[in-house]
Amino acid sequence: MTKGHVVLDSTWARLLGVRRSGGMYRIGRRELMERLKVQQAPLERVLRPVAVQGGRGLTANETPLGDTVTVEGHAHSVEFYETEAFLVESVRDFLASSLITGDAAIVVATDAHRDSFNCALMEAGIDVPEARRCGRFVSLDTSEALATFMVDDMPDVARFEATIGQLVSRVVENARHVRIYGEMVAVLWDQGNVAAAIALEDLWNDLATRYQFSLLCAYPMPAFDTDETTENFRRICGQHSRVLVQSQGT
């Protein structure tokens, strides 16, 4: 976990008792983890009562998803979503804001999601084939990417650096801003391999100490609908600089 402060949205700030400072709700990572440990609100209350910003259902600091919140030059956001349509829209906005300015984006997702993202980006006016040809858009299959660094059901640090780390290094070298969307952690979580998902979140944060990029991870909300998942939900939130939750009905 990287050092520094986390910027919270107003909903989480109220939930955790964080006061506004300098126009933002800021809290140290260590203090955030301590507050999440003692926060006893049922998971249903933690996830559901989220204000909808601009009709898009995001829990931002009065800003859309396209505006990043950085921690030491890096933004690591997590999104909990209920519908595929919401996921596609938010990922499209996240990636398009980089690609439309000539910068770069990396996607690591399932084949079905990759196809949906590509269609949404092209409908938004992004020339995806050209961006891919120029090396500004890289799209990887989740299972194939995981296979390059998973050893005995856990991410291997050296292999992660040699594959994902080298990819990020190449893309960052040729672009001013890089945005990455990844759902490898969600796949591991769905497989019941919670330890591997959390370890992989840590590896992304370690990678961010050397390269500047904005990362968005996403988990389907039903994966956290039981009391048994509450503590792991808090652990996941504690590894991110921004938490986004889809509101019911959006």
Features:
250 residues, alpha/beta, Rossmann fold, 6-stranded parallel sheet, 3-stranded antiparallel sheet, 11 helices, 11 strands, globular
Structure description:
This protein has 250 residues and is of the alpha/beta class. The chain has a domain of 172 residues: P-loop containing nucleotide triphosphate hydrolases (Rossmann fold). It is built from eleven helices and eleven strands. A six-stranded parallel sheet has the order 6-5-9-10-4-11, sandwiched between helices. It has a three-stranded antiparallel sheet with strand order 1-3-2. A two-stranded antiparallel ribbon has the order 7-8. About 15% of the residues have low confidence.
Can I get a quick summary?
With 250 residues, this protein is of the alpha/beta class. The protein has helices at residues 10-16, 29-38, 43-47, 84-99, 111-123, 128-133, 142-147, 157-173, 184-190, 194-207, 230-238, and strands spanning 5-8, 20-21, 24-28, 75-81, 104-109, 137-141, 150-151, 154-155, 178-182, 214-220, 242-245. The protein has a domain at 68-239: P-loop containing nucleotide triphosphate hydrolases (Rossmann fold, 3-Layer(aba) Sandwich).
